[in-house]
Write a structure and sequence with these properties.
Length: 118
């Protein structure tokens, strides 16, 4: 039989879930609407050639983010969660991930410069 405490706890969890889902949905919709409004404005202000340069730069940065993150968001979160009571270990994990990401970013920048320079 369900007691009042468990029922209240369950309703509270569902209330938080619905609230979080609502906020995330509003965020997604607002990001889409902002994109629909800003892109035509940028094309009008910058012109098609300059906007093309901006779009190309964003694509290159998107690839940079892909290479730099390389799954560290998932593995880092998992390792931090496993060692949440050991502050020293958490600090080492965070520092290691940050250093490796910096090294990968520098390598990506060097490759990009090598590609762009004649």
């Amino acid at each position: 039989m369900i007691n009042k405490y468990n029922l209240k706890k369950s309703l509270h969890k569902n209330k938080n879930l619905i609230k979080n889902f609502s906020f995330l949905s509003i965020l997604q919709v607002s990001q889409m609407l902002i994109g629909v409004v800003i892109f035509p404005y940028l094309i009008k202000v910058l012109g098609t050639n300059n906007y093309g340069i901006v779009a190309y730069s964003q694509a290159v940065l998107g690839y940079a983010v892909l290479f730099v993150n390389y799954g560290f968001n998932i593995t880092g979160t998992r390792e931090i969660a496993k060692n949440k009571l050991n502050k020293d270990k958490m600090s080492r994990i965070f520092s290691t991930i940050l250093i490796v990401k910096a090294i990968i970013f520098i390598i990506f920048l060097l490759l990009l410069l090598f590609y762009l320079l004649p």
